[in-house]
Write a structure and sequence with these properties.
The chain has about 110 residues and is mostly helical. The chain has one domain (about 5-105). It has helices at about 5-10, 15-20, 25-35, 50-60, 90-100, and strands at about 40, 45, 105. A three-stranded antiparallel sheet has the order 2-1-3. The longest helix has 12 residues, at about 50-60.
Length: about 110
């Protein structure tokens, strides 16, 4: 059976990402980056929905959270310093994904 690259699995297995997700701004920025973008590991594409994005980040932060803790959090980007709108990929997130072998495209 062929194993396909899986960004969710790579994020969940990364001690660095888990540690960084303890910061609320980083975790919101990761959620936002996962929304409305396509991710490539070599030529294999990976995408997910906003709800799925929220669920991944919630699991990275605390297993007692759920996708609603992040879903649509980009609406607070004007109010909360450091939050970004869905689809925005900060340089830190872009670099962390590259370190895992993933490229992001809108």
């Amino acid at each position: 059976m062929t194993q396909y690259p899986d960004l969710e699995k790579d994020l969940l297995n990364s001690d660095i990402i888990r540690s960084k997700c303890k910061d609320s701004i980083y975790s919101q920025n990761l959620y936002a980056a996962l929304c409305n973008n396509r991710f490539f590991y070599e030529e294999q594409e990976w995408t997910c929905s906003w709800r799925y994005s929220g669920g991944i980040v919630a699991e990275l932060v605390d297993k007692n959270l759920n996708y609603l803790d992040y879903y649509c959090s980009g609406i607070y980007s004007e109010e909360k310093n450091g939050y970004v709108s869905e689809g925005v990929v900060t340089e830190e997130i872009r670099n962390d994904l590259l370190n895992l072998g993933w490229r992001v495209k809108p």
